Automatic annotation (TrEMBL):
Residues 1-81 form the GST N-terminal domain. This is Glutathione S-transferase C-terminal domain-containing protein. SUPFAM superfamilies: GST C-terminal domain-like, Thioredoxin-like. It comes from the Bacteria. Residues 84-194 form the GST C-terminal domain. InterPro entries: Glutathione-S-Trfase_C-like, Glutathione-S-Trfase_C_sf, Glutathione_S-Trfase, Glutathione_S-Trfase_N, Thioredoxin-like_sf.
Length: 194
């Protein structure tokens, strides 16, 4: 497998999942400005979407979109997916909320023309975090062990830290717990973020 990523981008969730799973994989950094990979390839030839994450599977399939990649990884490595008959449905529910509501609400933080636009976006993001905290069952979203949804949420919590967005206490604790995990430390180091 090979993951195309950019440091601190949402692809960090997939990177952490691969490390938590103990998977064998290659990593290649993408410059999202020039759309070139570190090896100098045109990223648009790897995916016409030209955004990360991209996971190339061992059978040659190219997989994009966090929800699909994280769901696929949870299916391959069940410890990343939570327990119980309804677990996958709850996992997809959480991944969909993180992707389509929370992740999307960070767009002004990365791309806004002005600080005023960023200030306008902060309360909405904080409200999304509060909703997620209300649904969390333990240290992590679904208990004492993290799932792929926690990995995605963790990236959003790192973004909150970077952009000064208020985070409720139990999600701040989740961020700390994630940071202490050896696989997470390794992933952060590999992306130059430690
Ligand atoms: N719909 C995609 C969005 C992925 C995405 O937003 N990737 C960002 C980094 S977090 C990116 O590569 N942006 C560069 C660009 O759009 O030019 C997903 O959910 O995986």
């Amino acid at each position: 497998m090979k993951l195309y990523y950019s440091p601190l981008a949402c692809s960090l969730a997939d990177h952490i999942a691969l490390r938590e799973a103990g998977a064998v994989f290659d990593l290649e950094q993408v410059d999202l400005q020039t759309k070139r990979t570190l090896a100098g390839r045109d990223f648009a030839q790897i995916t016409p979407k030209a955004y990360v994450p991209v996971l190339i599977l061992d059978n040659g399939e190219t997989l994009t979109e966090n929800i699909a990649i994280l769901d696929w990884l949870a299916a391959q490595y069940p410890k990343l997916g939570g327990a119980g008959a309804f677990a996958r449905t709850r996992l997809l529910e959480a991944l969909a909320f993180i992707s389509t509501e929370l992740h999307r609400s960070f767009k002004p933080m990365w791309h806004a023309a002005s600080e005023a636009d960023r200030n306008d976006a902060r309360p909405g993001i904080a409200a999304h975090f509060r909703l997620i905290e209300d649904g969390a069952t333990s240290v992590y979203l679904f208990g004492d062990d993290p799932t792929v949804a926690d990995f995605y949420l963790f990236v959003m919590l790192l973004w909150a830290e970077r952009f000064g967005v208020e985070v409720p206490p139990r999600l701040a604790a989740l961020r700390d717990a994630m940071r202490d995990r050896p696989a997470v430390r390794t992933a952060l180091r590999a992306e130059g973020l430690a």
